[in-house]
Structure prediction request, 335 residues.
Amino acid sequence: MDLKLLEINNITVTFETDEGIVKAVDDVSFHIDRNEIVGLVGESGCGKSVTALSILRLIPLPYGRIETGEILFYGKNLLDLNHKEMRKIRGRAISMIFQEPGSALSPLHTIGRQMVETILLHKNITRKDAWNIAESWLEKVKISDPGERMFAYPYQLSGGMQQRVMIAMALMLEPDLIIADEPTTALDVTIQAQVFELVREMKRFNTSILLITHDMGVIWEMCDRVVVMYASRVVEEGNRDDIFSKPAHPYTIGLLESIPKLSVTPPIPPSRGDKGGCRLKAIPGQVPSALNYPSGCHFFDRCPDAFDRCRDEKPKLIDLGNGHKTACFLAKNEL
Ligand SMILES: Nc1ncnc2c1ncn2[C@@H]1O[C@H](COP(=O)(O)OP(=O)(O)O)[C@@H](O)[C@H]1O
Ligand code: SF4
Ligand SMILES: [Mg+2]
Prediction:
């Protein structure tokens, strides 16, 4: 049997807050194959980061809970592992690159020390060998004078350089999967391009990537497959070309029409109403608060195509063929 690298099946994550229970992730399923870059896209607040944190079991306890579902990594449910087993998975088999490199690097220790300690946590080798491995990874992510940078503190490096150090740290244990949560949002455009080049290169090291972003332009540039999330649920999934050439969910169409970067030129299909695929058209309205999602389709309030059925009934994901799925009553098999 061909085991998938990662298979998320029906996970639901809740948080207990002062205002009530928040369902941040609702019955989410998708998979990642080996050597694949999967994009998880959606506006802010749709549940992307919570999904990512669930994979690594980093949901803040005790008020956050994974209520249902399973997360199979090579067929093994990560939700069944104890803390010690989970620590082995983190960093070694699955590692994460955060939006703010500063938040993941300790300001108190040099880059070299942090990298060496991380390697020694997972590998039974000498400190000197660990030092050499760390330095070689700084070189691979194109940090100049890697030998000298090993002695630098994070504050002595630029934001772009810190992000490269994070990427080197994510790669140096040669994980099977890297989760990159908006890895370039805090960076300027030139550095962004360099980081994406690096992310693309990660595939050379046989690493699969879950790339989280709110930007469809980034998805076009980087990803093999796309999972679109809206207000805690997956609303569309498919390979990149299908998503861009025949998006099936009104939310995906809205995201495609609001691609912010003019430097990116994916083939946007003409939007309905014959607007000729114009860009930079923000989707009207906002993602609703997780405390009061509409009782039917979560996109109901903002959807230009909504009709009565959408008000009270939640659309399920249906298969359109070729791994393309959507959760909208307008999809052809649903009508
Ligand atoms: N620690 C938390 N406590 C309470 N609610 C949270 C917490 N983390 C996230 N949420 C809520 O879960 C929803 C999804 O958040 P998140 O996954 O961070 O969105 P995204 O990464 O797509 O911007 C949001 O409504 C957010 O307010
Ligand atoms: S189910 Fe209805 S409200 Fe939801 S996206 Fe489809 S048409 Fe719009
Ligand atoms: Mg996020």
About this structure: Confidence is low (pLDDT under 50) at residues 270-279. The chain is about 30% helix and 25% strand.
